[in-house]
Design a protein that fits this description.
alpha+beta, 3 helices, elongated
């Protein structure tokens, strides 16, 4: 869907891909994981026509969760509950056609 949406822009000033992770692993691991997640999305965008020089990557690790879950859940339930926190967010700045 994002590749189609990029085609709606006459000009693109920049694209920012922010990677995020849940809180299950260590902070360092989560930052690395979120960076890898964002870089994978960047590679996908570039492979589908985005200008690599206009695509930036940010890694937030576990610092900006969109969902909180209680510790009393078993591990499987906790992993499932925290799934929305494992994401990449894409922001595009430009002028639409």
């Amino acid at each position: 869907e994002i590749v189609t949406r990029l085609g709606e822009f006459a000009t693109i000033d920049y694209v920012t891909v922010s990677g995020h992770a849940d809180r299950i692993a260590t902070q360092l691991f989560n930052v690395r994981l979120s960076r890898a997640r964002a870089q994978t999305v960047k590679a996908y965008l570039v492979a589908n026509g985005a200008d690599a020089s206009k695509v930036g990557v940010l890694a937030f690790g576990e610092t900006l969760p969109v969902k909180s879950c209680h510790e009393e859940r078993d591990r499987e339930q906790l992993v499932e509950c925290l799934a929305p926190n494992r994401r990449a967010v894409i922001v595009v700045k430009g002028r639409l056609k």
